[in-house]
Task: structure prediction
Amino acid sequence: MDIYLPIAEVSVNAPLLVALGALVGFISGLFGIGGGFLMTPVLVFLGIPPAVAVASMANHVAASSMSSVIAYGRRRAVDWRMGAVLAAGGVVGGFLGVELFRWLRLRGQADLVVSVSYLVFLCVIGGLMLIESLGTILRRRRGQLPKPRRDRRPPWLYGLPFKVRFPRSRLYISVIPPLALGAFAGILTAIMGVGGGFVLVPAMVYILRMPAPMVVGTSLFQIIITTAMTGIMQAGRNQTVDVLLSILLLVGGVLGAQYGARASARLRAEELRAILALIVLVVGLRMGLGLFVQPDEPFVLMSGIGG
Amino acid sequence: MTPAVEPPAAISAALTETNVRVASDFSGAQIVLYGAVFDPSRRPADVVVIVRGPEQPVRIARKVKVGPLWLNSRPVVFHGAPGFYIAASSRPLDDIARFRVLRELGAGVDHLPIRAPAEQRIETRYGVRDVVVSRLGSDYLLWRRAVVRLKQDLGLYSEDQRGVRFVDRGLFRAEIELPARAPTGEYRADIILFQDGVPVSTRTRTLTVEKVGIERTLYVLAHERPWTYGVLSMALALAVGWGASFAFRRR
Result:
């Protein structure tokens, strides 16, 4: 059953999109990531113009994160105050990122920056997470005690001004690191068409040292706000949001996200991280590979939309 | 006997459909064109049908190797490229007419009037004034061909050497396949009668490809009130996400 998308101006298979939405939604709910880094490449592969895929994905990610956040919120696993600080940074980063992306598009280098960002960020983060989570799993298998968590946080987290109390996370730190982290995720949202959860989740664990149960829900809360702003800006400035596309993805996405959030309660945290790390690594390598392989076609058409 | 007393050969043609409606089930369309050749002298005749979609500038970049990486060059903008193009003919175009004739008519993908004006400058060379020089240099043809090739890969440009079939004496038929990704807008079909390599009669027909129903409503809203559209579609998305979590809670 094919359906014609009014903004993307292509005809796509509707059940396939619903299934794709469900799969990405499940992963999103399971790991507390937006899932954009998976969705965007697949949509482009299906023939949807990249600009439309990136923009419409923002709507889908906002919605599936919304349904997951409520599920996490009921379990009291969202630090709303930390989420709000991250989101404030995210909105600023989003604005910066949109401007940066427009400038890159004019110079024809947007593809390059997208591929390099995928390669670098996904591989580095995927690799680090994989090493860390496999280490934890191995230690548990051998019956060793888990490595005691170093509660000594980096001193610069405490040395900075504007300290705020985050009772849910049991943190009393400066707002500058979360703001900067949020801004960084916002820039990635605009450039890579992702929610930025794959950066936020590890950064919240390893840099901010938030308690693990709070991380996923808080990251999703930040993602809702950042992607909602990005989605509206993309529609307003570039007219690239295809509401039909995002609704199709949503139908599957909200279902998938619910099951994902439930499944995450049954899996061990380090196993979850190991699986996520593998997915992240594979996508990063796949996206970055194109930079090193001699292309079959030496020319490339640039998307006409907004260009 | 002088041939001047006979009326000149003429061509006539009609499209079975002049309006292609793009609704949510649109997955391309097939347009049938019928026509007739009127020629009392019965000289051999060739028919060429050229269908052009609305013009869309093309941005194209070349992959260049920098160190170990393959990067995009600065993009080049080509103008004069139709969003859709097909040349259907009763025989291969090169057998019907000479290069120059085909070039003038823009018949065949190699003869499309596409050019990159931003890359051109006019200078005096070898004492000849007003020579148009492309900054792309001798690679210019490569770029041009790449535009056509990439559009062909998308199914937007094509040549059908046997696309025009004579079904009866003087009566011909051509089928034009419009892919789902063909742009909306005004299309123009030129039906040209060739005799002895010379175009002797031409008919032009127009075709409108337009979005209808919900497709049109959404498209117009997205382009005329983009911020309203953006806020509405985001609100809708968030409402679906919120509603879904409640639906799941009750179960």
